Every structure is written in structure tokens, then in C-alpha cells.
UniProtKB/TrEMBL annotation, chain A:
<dbReference type="InterPro" id="IPR019734">
    <property type="entry name" value="TPR_rpt"/>
</dbReference>
<dbReference type="InterPro" id="IPR021183">
    <property type="entry name" value="NatA_aux_su"/>
</dbReference>
<feature type="region of interest" description="Disordered">
    <location>
        <begin position="629"/>
        <end position="657"/>
    </location>
</feature>
<feature type="compositionally biased region" description="Low complexity">
    <location>
        <begin position="10"/>
        <end position="20"/>
    </location>
</feature>
<keyword id="KW-0802">TPR repeat</keyword>
<feature type="region of interest" description="Disordered">
    <location>
        <begin position="1"/>
        <end position="21"/>
    </location>
</feature>
<feature type="compositionally biased region" description="Basic and acidic residues">
    <location>
        <begin position="639"/>
        <end position="657"/>
    </location>
</feature>
<dbReference type="Pfam" id="PF12569">
    <property type="entry name" value="NatA_aux_su"/>
</dbReference>
<keyword id="KW-0677">Repeat</keyword>
UniProtKB/TrEMBL annotation, chain B:
<dbReference type="GO" id="GO:0007064">
    <property type="term" value="P:mitotic sister chromatid cohesion"/>
</dbReference>
<keyword id="KW-0012">Acyltransferase</keyword>
<dbReference type="InterPro" id="IPR000182">
    <property type="entry name" value="GNAT_dom"/>
</dbReference>
<dbReference type="GO" id="GO:0016747">
    <property type="term" value="F:acyltransferase activity, transferring groups other than amino-acyl groups"/>
</dbReference>
<keyword id="KW-0808">Transferase</keyword>
<dbReference type="Pfam" id="PF00583">
    <property type="entry name" value="Acetyltransf_1"/>
</dbReference>
<dbReference type="GO" id="GO:0031415">
    <property type="term" value="C:NatA complex"/>
</dbReference>
<dbReference type="InterPro" id="IPR051556">
    <property type="entry name" value="N-term/lysine_N-AcTrnsfr"/>
</dbReference>
<dbReference type="InterPro" id="IPR016181">
    <property type="entry name" value="Acyl_CoA_acyltransferase"/>
</dbReference>
Length: 843, 166
């Protein structure tokens, strides 16, 4: 963030508290030095003054000077001292302002707001503070307060368009739509005829933004909508976003029921961009022919003639034509010219039909393309030949016929072994069959054909990571990173926020951890039964090595997951600058879009993926610590208490080497390379909540939440009422009859047992809820130790629901051997790669 | 704009792997030492000059040629001139005149470097290839070179084919 201290230019509002006149003058001089970035001089001056006793003002200024000199620990110390000397917020306006600035730079926004506000309350006349306040309020999502601040600032500086725009945006966000429109109109009047060329873009954005607000405010009211339409006509000449304008126009016509007019607009839009599928769909609606295949066909035939070079009118009939002979003909007309030209994306173009019309399209496509391929001579028509093979390989992969898919891609490769695409596809097929190493090697073979192809470089890295070959992956990835002094690109990949890499690496580490754990368990079991003392030493070292692997991989996985969380925190923080920047640039529409994005930031796929990964580790840590407690309670022998491990010299050396390879942040800032400190947390659940869950939970809507995660988390925190909430939401959003619902409900029943640990009241609440919403469960058997709940679930729900079975596996409530059996049965219907994953890392 | 279906382009360090792939696929029996390809992009400043190209059929790399300049005579087998060390086209892309283009290219380079001789060594067993060279004005010279080319099945005899350019 840029260092903005614009606010300090204003006249100091009051005397520094508790200081003489002379001293006050000196303080102001120091302040000036600070503003001129002469921190050393400022500090020197402050030191002389402070010999006679220090005030909060001086301490705050000293803290800021230290901060900008880069001495952050000292800075924090002085700020703390300063705050400690202040009773509540009773300090001079300058002091409060300084503290506000400091807190803003250290990203303690709520505190920053408090001090900025205090500065105003304590008599500061510095109006700039309002702008800073508005920005901060917006950042923390307090738009009501932001509106107040925006208004104050606007009152003070009416000469800037940015202030009018910000005010309107704030009003809009607070639902004061009419006021927002008025604000924008008022400025338009003021500015009329005075705008230069340079300001026209900003003007255009504000005009269409006003129309946005009007449209939102109009709802379905026809008079108001007509008004919006008039306004649209008025501003048309000055608006640059013609698509937006036309789309708005069409949707108003649709709302008003003027379908004919709407259809004309949609035709105009199609003319502007005949490749946008959306416009065709909407044209159908406006013509009132969505349900009439005959008319639709006629329409697209005409359009296809009109736009002969265009995909969309040829494609659209494929989505609705019912007659198979005809559909087959149309598919041929659509696909074969592309295959003839050698369009690599041919399959992607029709892939959507494979899910939407699975029972018709794939079989017809197979006939059409197989026939076409048989007519192509590999020597005479090499291009159609290879791309048809490529196409069919994808087709069979989609149908999960791996063998046939592989045959086709092999044909393509044998014909033309120089196409990178073919290697990628072959890798993909191998991946689905569970041959992860071979998949990676195949993609690597393709990568070697063209070293400057970044796409295949990334693909190779990903495939290596999927195959748990982390070192190889890092080596390949490092070919494209800025490595400077580091031995590889891991640090750079963190710096550029390459979350795809980091999350894949995290998951690879986690898989390695699970494998190492298994090996360790086996080795320990073997060591326990072994009676010979021979080779004791080497076994001992082997065990130690394994222990270290277990810990290292788990720590690294967690460390990487945390890195993702950090990125998202950074993304959130990055918004700060835009609360003022967008206003200055006059891009309110983009700004509002950003706010919407910010509201869903922590529910984005990458974040949730990292969260789910971290959850596995943290839940595991929690469960382990519980078990340790139990066994420690039972007998105090504490076999689990680790013997202080003595690191051998060679191991220490290796660890040092490894450190260089896994280092994620600059070495001088990094204190926990292997994530050992993260693992050492005393409260895994709280750590998980702080780093991942709380932010997700606050943003995720009920309809999209991961209720299973909610349940697992709350179950472990002992909040059974919240478990009940997750359970009933899951059964509402998904399916009350699904096995997951059943498994969750049973888990909750068992948690309310008398003998189960936990809070009585929570149990009662949960029981009550179960009685009302899940009365079909045999609740009366709750305390019957011999009741077979697992059989109950199997008998009453789909016993091959893998998600449910894995949930039970994670909850560890039932007989492991029986559950394994069920899981083994359930995975038979899965594809090989999933089977392997479950076998290796879940059982 | 009508575009030629076949185009030639330089070999670069980054797509050297493609050339290697083509050569190995077309000549599965020949053992190429790693240096055979790496020497095109030497790490040190070696003075050898190579002419290498790849042919693209509708933008797909399908053929490659590598030849070496011998500015001085180096034994009977390596006279002064340009030696075509390998010329390979994927089987399915033969018959598009790629080899003609390659030959034209080598002849051009030969002239540019003030040489008058292009020559190559072809295994005796590859009659078709020998015939092609002969059709293009090459003449065989001397006896067969015993055990000249190493393959996985053991060494094979080769013939020296050469053509003079003025």
C-alpha cells in the first residue's frame, strides 16, 4: 500500500496535552520533520524533548518514525506505551490522528477507525480525516458509517467529482437509491458543458451507473422502467459500453412485455457479437419460441446463413433437435468441418452436450466421427486423421472407456509424435486409470518437445505433484520462476501467489505424510515384535527417519495450506486502495463488482480447497491430542510422551539441505520452515478457526456451505446444537434421505449419549432437535451399547454412498474393519484414480 | 492468402526436443549419442557450424535435418563441404516435397559458405533413400564404408553420396 499521510497537512487542531507552549512548538517541528520523511532528525528531536518526560503524542510520533525506518518491533513498543498513557481516547487530536495512521499501516483497521474518530471528536478540524475514515469503514464493511464520512467529506470538498461519485455509491449501497440518483444528477448539472475530453470516460461510467441505480430502483414498475428507458436514450451518445447499454435496453423491454422491441435489440446484439450464446437464448425468449423446436430450427437456419462463419447458430440446434437421424446429420455438419481443419478444441466445443444430453449425443457422435475417421487415410489426410483420433480419445475418456481412449490417443501419437496436446491427453487418460507416475512421465515427454511452452510446463508440474514426486515437480516448475539466490522456485511461487502450485504441493505433502505414517506404524509394529538385537542401530535410525518424514510432510502440508489462506487475506486487504482509487478514476460499476467479489472471497474454490485440506490435519491433531489425554489419564506411564530425540549429525545436515529446498519465504523472515510450530499448536481447533474457518463461515451462504465440514468442526468443539444446525441444513439443502444425512444424524445421536463426554445442556438441545426433525431414527436405542448403528445406516440408507462412508471413517465411530469392507464395496463403482486415492490415503 | 502447407524454420534450443523426437522415431534402430543434438547449442564456444532445420506441415513439426560444415578436409570419409548428418521425415508426412526443400536449404547454405560439395552417408540397406539422392543428382563414390553406422542391431555398412555445386 502506498503510504498516505495526506491528513497531516492540516493545521493542528489543539495543543498537545500536558505540554508547555514551548514544548508544543518543538513537537510541531518534529512532526514537520516526520512529514518530510526525515525520521532520524525527528527522532533526535523527540529524544531531547522526552528527557523532560514523555507525552503520548511524542511516543506515538516516535513509534511512527521507527515504523517507517523499518524498525517494526520498536515501533509497536512505543505505540503501546503511548496508548497505555491515554485514558480511553482522551488525547490530543494530533496524537489520535497519529495513532490512527499507525494502526492503518499495521492493518488494525477497527482500531484505526477508533483513533481517527477520536481525533475528530477531540477537536480536529482536519477534514481529510473523513476521507480516511470512509475508506476504512468501507474496508471493514461498515457502509452506514462510510456514508456519514463520505457526506462530511463531500460537504467539505464539493469541487471534485470523485466526492460526488463516492457519496452516490455510499448512498446506493445503503439503499438510498433516489438520493444517489439525485447526487449524480446534481453533479451532472454542475458539470454540464464544462467537461473536457479527458473526463468523458469517467462521465460515461457515471452516466451508466446512474442508470444502473435507476434500474435497480424501478423493480417491476412499468412507469419507472419507461423512465429508465428514456434516460438510457438520453445518455446513449455519451456511453461507451454499448453492450451494457443494449443489454439493459433489452431487459427493460422484456420486463415491460415489449417482446418485439426486445427481440430487435437482441438481434442488434447478435450482430455486434454473433459468438455470444447468451444473446441467442434471449432472442429465443423474446420471440416466444423457446418451447417450439420447429420455429427455433427455422430461426437458426436463417441465422446460420446470415452469419456463415459463426459457430453459435450451428451449435444451438444441437441442444434441442430430438430426431436422432436429423441430430446425427447436424452433429456431422458441426463437427466434421472442425476436424477437417484440425481444431484442437472440437471436443471441448460439444462437451457440454455430453452432460446435458448424455443418452443421445455421445452415441451419435461416436458413430459420426468413427465413420469419418475410417474414411481418412493417415497419409493422404494427416490432419483430419490425427484430430479425429484425438477427438475420439477424449470422447471415450468422457465415457470412461479408458482402454479405447488409450488406443485412440496411441494411434494419434504413433502417427504424429510431435504434438504436445497428444501427450497431455494421454497423461490425462493414464491419470484416470490411476497410473499417476506414468501419467507424469508421459506429460514430461511432451514437455521436452517444447521447453518454452509454459502451459505444458505447469501441467507437468501438476502431474508430478499428483504422483507425489514433489522434487521433480519443483525442478520443472523452477524452469519458469525467478530463482535469484534460492535453489529453486518455491519462494518465487509464493511471492507470485501461484495458488494452484501451492495447493497441489500441500496435498502432495499430505499424501506423503499419510503414506509415511502407515510405513512408520508398520515399522514400529515390526520393531516391537522383533526379538533380535542385531542391527538395532540401523533400525533405530530408520525409525527416526520415518518419524521425521511423518512430521515433516504433515508440517509442510499445513504450512502450504496456510500460505493459501495468507493470499486470500492479502486479496481482502488489497481492496483498501480501491475505496478511493475507483472513485478518483470514476469506475463505480467496477467498484461495486469488487465489493461483491470481496463478500464471497473466502468461499472461492481455492480457498475452500485449502481449508478442507487444513481441516483434515487440524482435526487429526485434535483427535490425536484427545487420545493422548485419554491414555495419559488411564495410565501415567506416558509411553506416548516422546523420548527427547537426539538428532544425529548427518540428519541435522540433511535437514539443513532440505530447508533450502522447501523455503517458502525470505530466509530472514522465516522462523518455521517445516511448519513444525504450526503443528505444535495446543489448540488445533482454534488455530483452524482463526486461519481458515471463521472467515469462510462468515461468508458462505447456507445453500453452498460445506455442512459436513461444519458438522465435523462443531462436533469436535462440542457444540452439538450447531451440529444439529449443520445436520438439518444439510438435509434441507441436499437430501434428507441421503446416507450422509443418516450418518451425520447417527453421529449426533451417539454424541448425546449419557456416557459421551460433553456439556449436558448441549446434549439436551441436540436431543430435542433430533426428536422433532429426525424422529424416524431409533432414538430410544441411544444408550443401548449393543445396538448396531452401522447396520441401521446400511439398512435404511444407500450403503454405497462413498461420501457418507468416508464421513463415518473420519468420525471414527464404528468398527473399523466393517467400515473398511463397506468402503471397499463402495469404491468399486468409482474410477480407478479415486479407488487408489481412497485405498492409499483414507483406509 | 494462400500459404504453403510446408514451411521450414530454424531449430532452437527450446524445441530441440522435437528434432530429437523426430529423428528417433524415424530411425528407431540408430543410437544417437546425447551430444548429437546438444552440439547444436554448445555451452562453450565451439567453432563447429551446423545447419539444422525443421519442417512444419500445417504448423505441425514433422521433419528435421541436421548438417555440418567441414571447412577443411577430414579424411576420405569427411571431405571438405557440407555433410548431411541426418534428414528425417515422419512416415505419414512423406510425399509433400519436404526433402526437396531440405536439400534446397542445404545447397543454399553450402553456397553461402563458399562450399561446393554436399554429401551424406546412407546405409546400404536403404535403397529407396539412396535412389532418392541419386535422382537428385548425387553420385556414390568409392566402396561401401564398412561398419560405418552404429545401430542397436550392430554396425551396418554405408555408402557415401555426394553432389557438386558450382
Amino acid at each position: 500500500m502506498s503510504r498516505r499521510r495526506g491528513g497531516m497537512k492540516g493545521k493542528p487542531a489543539g495543543k498537545a496535552a500536558g505540554a508547555g507552549k514551548d514544548q508544543h512548538g518543538q513537537f510541531l517541528e518534529a512532526l514537520k520533520l516526520y512529514e518530510g520523511k526525515q525520521y532520524k532528525k525527528a527522532l533526535k528531536m523527540l529524544d531531547t524533548m522526552m528527557k523532560k518526560g514523555s507525552t503520548p503524542d511524542m511516543l506515538a510520533l516516535k513509534g511512527l518514525c521507527f515504523y517507517y525506518q523499518g524498525d517494526k518491533t520498536d515501533a509497536a513498543g512505543y505505540i503501546k506505551q503511548s496508548v497505555a498513557k491515554i485514558e480511553g481516547t482522551k488525547a490530543s487530536a494530533i496524537c489520535c490522528h497519529l495513532l490512527g495512521i499507525y494502526m492503518r499501516t499495521t492493518k488494525e483497521y477497527p482500531d484505526s477507525i477508533k483513533w481517527f474518530q477520536a481525533s475528530l471528536d477531540n477537536g480536529s478540524t482536519n477534514k481529510q480525516i473523513y476521507r480516511d475514515l470512509a475508506t476504512l469503514h468501507s474496508q471493514v464493511g461498515d457502509f452506514k458509517a462510510a456514508l456519514v464520512a463520505r457526506k462530511k467529506y463531500w460537504e467539505a470538498f464539493m469541487g471534485y467529482r470523485a466526492n460526488w461519485t463516492s457519496l452516490a455509491v455510499a448512498q446506493d449501497i445503503n439503499g438510498e437509491r433516489q438520493q444517489a440518483v439525485n447526487t449524480l444528477s446534481q453533479f451532472e448539472k454542475l458539470a454540464e458543458g464544462k467537461l473536457g475530453e479527458a473526463e468523458m470516460y469517467e462521465n460515461n461510467e457515471c452516466l451508466i451507473y446512474k442508470n444502473d441505480i435507476m434500474y435497480k430502483a424501478a423493480g417491476d414498475n412499468p412507469d419507472k422502467l419507461k423512465n429508465v428507458l428514456h434516460h438510457l436514450d438520453d445518455i446513449e451518445a455519451n456511453v461507451y459500453d454499448k453492450f451494457g447499454l443494449l443489454e439493459r435496453k433489452a431487459s427493460i423491454y422484456m420486463k415491460l412485455g415489449q417482446l418485439k422491441d426486445a427481440s430487435i435489440v437482441y438481434r442488434t446484439l447478435i450482430k455486434r457479437n454473433p459468438d455470444n450464446f447468451k444473446y441467442y437464448k434471449l432472442l429465443e425468449v423474446s420471440l416466444g419460441i423457446s418451447g417450439n423446436n420447429k420455429l427455433k430450427k427455422a430461426l437458426y437456419e436463417k441465422l446460420a446463413k446470415f452469419y456463415p462463419r459463426c459457430e453459435a447458430p450451428k451449435f444451438m440446434p444441437l441442444t434441442f433437435v430430438q430426431d436422432e437421424t436429423e441430430l446425427s446429420k447436424l452433429l456431422g455438419e458441426y463437427l466434421l468441418p472442425q476436424l477437417k481443419r484440425g481444431v484442437p478444441a472440437t471436443f471441448s466445443n460439444i462437451k457440454v452436450l455430453y452432460s446435458k444430453r448424455r443418452h443421445v449425443v455421445p452415441k451419435l457422435v461416436e458413430q459420426v466421427v468413427t465413420k469419418y475417421l475410417s474414411e481418412q487415410d493417415p497419409k493422404e489426410q494427416p490432419i483430419p486423421y490425427i484430430w479425429s483420433c484425438y477427438f475420439l480419445a477424449q470422447h471415450f475418456l468422457n465415457l470412461r472407456q479408458y482402454q479405447t481412449a488409450q488406443e485412440h490417443i496411441d494411434r494419434a501419437l504413433a502417427h504424429t509424435p510431435t504434438m504436445v496436446e497428444f501427450y497431455i491427453l494421454k497423461g490425462r487418460i493414464l491419470k484416470h486409470t490411476g497410473q499417476l507416475e506414468q501419467a507424469a512421465e508421459t506429460v514430461e515427454e511432451g514437455r521436452k518437445l517444447d521447453l518454452q511452452d509454459r502451459f505444458i510446463n505447469c501441467k507437468t508440474v501438476k502431474y508430478y505433484l499428483r504422483a507425489n514426486m514433489v522434487d521433480k515437480a519443483v525442478d520443472v516448475a523452477s524452469l519458469f520462476t525467478k530463482n535469484d539466490e534460492s535453489v529453486n522456485g518455491v519462494k518465487d511461487l509464493h511471492l507470485v501467489e501461484a495458488s494452484w502450485f501451492i495447493v497441489e504441493q500441500a496435498e502432495a505433502y499430505h499424501r506423503l505424510h499419510v503414506s509415511a505414517q502407515k510405513k512408520l506404524a508398520d515399522a514400529q509394529a515390526a520393531a516391537a515384535t522383533a526379538t533380535t538385537t542385531e542391527g538395532e542401530d540401523s533400525k533405530e535410525t530408520d525409525l527416526r527417519e520415518l518419524e521425521w518424514s511423518v512430521e515433516k510432510y504433515e508440517g509442510l502440508a499445513l504450512k502450504r495450506f496456510h500460505a493459501i489462506s495468507k493470499f486470500y487475506n492479502q486479496f481482502e486487504d488489497d481492496q483498501l486502495d480501491f475505496h478511493s482509487y475507483c472513485m478518483r478514476k470514476g469506475t463505480p460499476r467496477a467498484y461495486l463488482e469488487m465489493l461483491e467479489w470481496g463478500k464471497r472471497l473466502y468461499t472461492k474454490p481455492m480457498y475452500t480447497r485449502a481449508m478442507n485440506g487444513a481441516a483434515r490435519i487440524y482435526f487429526n491433531l485434535h483427535d490425536r491430542s484427545l487420545k493422548r489425554h485419554q491414555s495419559a489419564d488411564g495410565e501415567a506411564d506416558g509411553d506416548v510422551a516422546k523420548k527427547p530425540r537426539k538428532e544425529t549429525a548427518s540428519m541435522k545436515k540433511r535437514k539443513g539441505e532440505e530447508k533450502k529446498r522447501v523455503l517458502a519465504y525470505p530466509a530472514e523472515e522465516e522462523t518455521d520452515v517445516f511448519g513444525e510450530k504450526l503443528l505444535a499448536t495446543k489448540e488445533p481447533l482454534a488455530a483452524f478457526n482463526d486461519a481458515f474457518y471463521a472467515k469462510y463461515s462468515a461468508q458462505a451462504p447456507d445453500s453452498e456451505r460445506n455442512h459436513i465440514l461444519d458438522f465435523e468442526y462443531q462436533y469436535r468443539t462440542g457444540k452439538l446444537a450447531l451440529c444439529l444446525g449443520a445436520l438439518s441444513k444439510y438435509s434441507k439443502v441436499h437430501d434428507a434421505k441421503s446416507a450422509v444425512t443418516g450418518a451425520m444424524a447417527v453421529a449426533l445421536v451417539l454424541a448425546t449419549k449419557e456416557s459421551a463426554p460433553g456439556d449436558k445442556i448441549a446434549k439436551m438441545v441436540a436431543t430435542k432437535g433430533l426428536e422433532t426433525d429426525f424422529s424416524q431414527l431409533p432414538l430410544s436405542e441411544r444408550d443401548n451399547e449393543s445396538f448396531d448403528w452401522l447396520s441401521y445406516i446400511c439398512d435404511n440408507y444407500n450403503a454405497t454412498d462413498l461420501r457418507a462412508l468416508l464421513f463415518m471413517q473420519h468420525m471414527d465411530l464404528f468398527d473399523a474393519a466393517r467400515l473398511h469392507e463397506l468402503i471397499m464395496k463402495a469404491i468399486q463403482q468409482e474410477e480407478p484414480v479415486t479407488q487408489n486415492a481412497v485405498l492409499q490415503y483414507e483406509l | 492468402m494462400a500459404r504453403d502447407l510446408v514451411n521450414l524454420d530454424n531449430v532452437y534450443a527450446n524445441n530441440l526436443g522435437t528434432l530429437e523426437k523426430i529423428c528417433k522415431v524415424v530411425n528407431p534402430s540408430i543410437e544417437f549419442p546425447a551430444s548429437f543434438f546438444e552440439e547444436l547449442f554448445p555451452k562453450d564456444t565451439k567453432k563447429d557450424t551446423y545447419f539444422a532445420q525443421m519442417a512444419y506441415f500445417s504448423e505441425i513439426p514433422v521433419a528435421g535435418i541436421k548438417s555440418k560444415l567441414y571447412p577443411k578436409r577430414k579424411g576420405d570419409n569427411y571431405p571438405k563441404g557440407v555433410c548431411i548428418e541426418i534428414m528425417a521425415t515422419l512416415e505419414n508426412y512423406e510425399g509433400h516435397g519436404i526433402n526437396d526443400k531440405f536439400l534446397e536449404y542445404v545447397a543454399d547454405e553450402c553456397k553461402k559458405h563458399h562450399q561446393h560439395l554436399v554429401y551424406t552417408h546412407i546405409p546400404l540397406t536403404e535403397e529407396k533413400t539412396i535412389q532418392w539422392y541419386k535422382d537428385n543428382g548425387f553420385e556414390s563414390e568409392g566402396d561401401a564404408l564398412k561398419d560405418f553406422i552404429k545401430t542397436v542391431d550392430g554396425p551396418v555398412d554405408a555408402v557415401l553420396l555426394k553432389k557438386h555445386y558450382e
